[in-house]
Amino acid sequence: MDLGRRQILAGAMAGGILALPACSSIPGFSLTDAIRRLLSLSSQSAFAQLLQPGGFYDSNVARIALPDRFGGSTGSGILSAVLRSSAFRTRLQKELNRAAEKGAERAAPLVADAVRNVSIADAASIVRGGPQAATSFLRGHMGSTLMDAMLPGVGDALRFASDDVVSHAIRAVSGFDIGALASDINQKADNAIWASIGAEEAAIRADPQKTNDPLLIGVFGLGG
């Protein structure tokens, strides 16, 4: 962003001319630009965390829970007993969260591309919306795109999970297979990704100054 545009933004903030209910843009930038910037920073920050080793498991927002089918096998066999042990369940949950990471690797570029190209018809309502309004808009636009793209990666990761921990767990549950498990983790990974992006958006809206981005400060600082 050049100095001239920074000065325009500074003047707008100082003069209080960015009255969102009546004004849909600021000189040189539109509210659509602000929404794209907001979504770009939010998604980049979310994926930067999720794609770290242990990114899903270590996150209070994104951690993937064990499927309900693994909630406590009541069988009497050795495998059922193993599945109930705390140590095994922790190992299993970490493997499932690693599988979610593989899915997220496929999701990240799709989100970035959508942010660049999505048509935003009513940016003002998104700016004035709730703390995760932009994330909700983008998720609605993308529909099942992420789940469709992630499923192969999630499935492959589960099939090659270390120490065969996943296959041991599946064998302990009657009527459950790798395909059903992959679908469960894929759905949860999709929810986790959007929850993480939404949390980042909410944080930016709450304190846009932390971004050091004049456009976001100008729009969401005064808008808030």
Structure notes:
There is one protein chain. The protein has one domain (29-223). The chain contains 10 helices and 2 strands; from the N terminus they run H-E-E-H-H-H-H-H-H-H-H-H. The protein has helices at 3-15, 31-50, 78-84, 86-117, 123-127, 133-142, 145-159, 165-171, 178-206, 214-223, and strands at residues 25-26, 29-30. The chain has a two-stranded antiparallel sheet with strand order 1-2. Strand 1 and strand 2 form a beta hairpin.
Keyword list:
224 residues; mainly alpha; two-stranded antiparallel sheet; disordered N terminus
Secondary structure blueprint with pairings:
Elements: H1 3-15, E1 25-26, E2 29-30, H2 31-50, H3 78-84, H4 86-117, H5 123-127, H6 133-142, H7 145-159, H8 165-171, H9 178-206, H10 214-223
Antiparallel strand pairs: 1-2
Provide a quick synopsis of the model:
The protein has 224 residues and is an all-alpha fold. 66% of the residues lie in helices and 2% in strands. The protein has 10 helices and 2 strands.
